[in-house]
Amino acid sequence: MREEPKLRESDDIQGDVIAGFKKDRMTLLFLKFEDPARARTWVKRLASQISTTRQVATFNAAFRMARQATGGDDPKALKATWTNVSFTYEGLKVLIGGKDPLPSVRKGGTLEAFKEGSHKRSLGDTGDSSPENWLFGDGKGQTVHAVITVASDTAEGLQDALTAQREAAAQAKIVIVFQQNGATLPGTRRGKEHFGFKDGVSEPGVIGFDEPDPERPEYVKDHPGTRLVPPGEFVIGHDRVGGIPYDEMPEWADNGSFQVVRRLAQDVPGWWAQVAAQLKVLRKAKVVPDEATAEWLAARMVGRWRSGTPVAKCPHADMPDNALAGQDNDFGYRNDPEGFTTPLFSHLRKTNPRDGLQEKPGAGPLPEKPVMDRRRIIRRGAPYGAPFDPASDGPGGPDHPRGLLFVCYQSDLVEQFEFIQKMWIDNVDFPPNRPAKPGPDPMVGPGKVNFESPDATTELSFHQFVTTEGSVYAFVPSLTTLRLLGDGRLTDKLPETVRPTDAFLPIPDRQRDNGKSWYWAYGTGGDGPVCRTISIADGDEHKDVVERPDRPLATWPCYIGVSKVDAILPVPDEQRVNGRSRYWLFHTVEGRQVYRLISIADGAESGLDPEAAGAVDRPDRPISAWASFNGIEQVDAFLPVPDMQRQNGKSHYWLFHSSLGQQVYRLISIADGSAHNDVIERGDRSLSLWQSLAGVSRVDEFLAVPDMQRINGLSLFWVFHQQKYRIICIADGHGHNDQVAVEDRSITLWKSLTG
């Protein structure tokens, strides 16, 4: 039995990359995030809506079989709407809390290109095509963070999906920067672009996805001339063609692909007028047959006739009713090295020289494998705008916007898309080393080209017919990475050096609950600030476990802008009031410590939406707003005086902070009530006055032993300092005598705080 290609079964690769949506209608939404936390929540919800390779491939196979059964008509019973998403470099950065997703990139490599964005990449976008004129992707006022692709068989299906996406974006405070619609042209123009030529004929096949031909295994079965290319040219992490020094990709890029989106406006009447004008030049030079028409020259500029029939196979006339149209990709240029039949400047030869590329005239052709295969891209574009109708005073008129929505996928922006664009399409000296330079691709850009015939070389001149009106480089992540982005990260691995002891927050409704108490432990790892849920059991051993692994702080709205939690202090009279508890959170911004007021809902650890679980009740303020913090630049930790909480309307705390390079402490009090008036009860003193802190130069954090508070007038606390911890005992009463209950031990003994 034949083994089904494995890539067809992938539920991790997004569906448009190698399977292809292939719908009559598609729309791209270009999005900008305004609220990072809400954007992450949006990503989480979007992940379940993403169409996978398996889903799309299964549908496309069923659609193809049904179409064959009906003699070529589209099966009306088979309908689907697909959705994919991609992110720009800036978009990824926002989602992971402002950190750099690519902190180290190779100069000249594809990661550098992705990081810079297409507006900085010198893609021939000058004059009217300059980025400052773009509708999206200019890197300034029209910053794009994400691109949603929606494609459907029906107008109703597309509109319903777009409405849902617009509503979801509005709820997440996501701005729709631009909406680009695309659709198959109607009637006889179906399958063609606006200049009138069949499009999408020359797409490559993918090894491991498309079935090989039994007799010619380098080609796709039932698609003569369609070469099978290794999947790693389009999907990162898979086998690639050898010979190119590819960038080393991060793990999170596996099963992803780089996407290029370009809006290319087409001047249809101008193009055809120029074709007619240049035909006159050729006739005057007597280098074309007497019967040559504008269609004849246009076909040579493209490399195909309108129907898709290659000029290389039918040089004299189009064959629109060709019974062998399925073989329109089975041709080459080996027998036409000079470009007398298919000009060297033709669009087809410029974008894929096939078997006809020479280093210099007279040399043998370069092999398609690996030279050509490693430059292939997968295109998924569509026309936009109404077809040209010179008699129309409405949508089809000469001034109506129309063009091509160009979308392509590849593993390497530089060696694939940019190489084709810069080294082939725009390069006047490609193919190289010709006596007369071929010139640029006249379908895409302006310039002079050399039309070669056996008797003469004739120079032709073309104006600009295609204008870039928007461009974006984006990354299409795997479903695995997409889910991680919803949590504000790009990897599920954290360094073993993470020690989440920067601060602890007792989860308000999970204290002394069924014999254990739950906490959020804050720390800093390789991916930035994280929060881990731990629990500590009552009893002599106080067994601790991880209840929930590390999550980036960036996943919660209440932590936006927090790069490290310095300290957390519960608001004493606002714990579990109407199902919420308030805390003062201290953190550092640009070298200065600030604080904010946050609230946490009961049930926050039981699956509440982050937006409902935690909130910022009052934004950041400088710590100088606290009267009791006079002279303090950095709060390190708080220790509640155990027998002086909520006594006579106020609560007392020992406040530990750094002064002149040494940690000291002072006694402060905070009053109940809306103002929470705070005062210094006793000024700064040296840590040496604490018998229980002997040998400690700096306390990182205190944590109350949950079942050992005010037992027989004594309270126990864990003291964390320099990767160690000890247990101290503080007595009730005026002197608050303190002593060491358990000497220093390594923090590695805490199972919940290591690894």
Outline type = elongated
N-C termini distance: 48 Å
Main pleated-sheet profile: 5 strands, antiparallel
Low-pLDDT segments, ≥5 res: 494-498
How would you characterize this protein structure?
The structure is a single chain. By secondary structure, this protein is α+β, with helices and mostly antiparallel strands. The chain is 16% helix and 29% strand. Strands 8, 9, 10, 11 and 14 form a five-stranded antiparallel beta sheet that branches. A hairpin with a 2-residue loop joins strand 6 and strand 7. Helix 1 (36-47) packs antiparallel against helix 11 (479-486) and helix 6 (268-285) packs across helix 7.
Structure characteristics:
five-stranded antiparallel beta sheet; 12 helices; 755 residues; 30 strands; four-stranded antiparallel beta sheet; 29% strand; alpha+beta; single chain
Brief characterization of the structure:
The protein is an alpha+beta fold and 755 residues long. The protein is elongated.
Give the helices and strands, then pairings.
Blueprint lengths: L24 E9 L2 H12 L5 H17 L11 E7 L1 H7 L14 H7 L29 E7 L2 H17 L2 E10 L21 E2 L12 E2 L2 E7 L27 E10 L1 H18 L8 H9 L44 H5 L16 H5 L5 E2 L2 E3 L18 E8 L2 H13 L21 E6 L4 E6 L3 E11 L2 H8 L16 E4 L9 E10 L2 E10 L6 E9 L12 E6 L9 E10 L2 E10 L8 H4 E9 L12 E6 L9 E10 L2 E10 L6 E9 L14 E4 L9 E8 L2 E8 L6 E9 L9
Parallel strand pairs: 5-7
Antiparallel strand pairs: 1-3, 1-4, 2-3, 6-7, 8-11, 8-14, 9-11, 10-11, 12-13, 15-16, 16-17, 17-18, 19-20, 20-21, 21-22, 23-24, 24-25, 25-26, 27-28, 28-29, 29-30
Helix pairs in contact: 1-11, 6-7
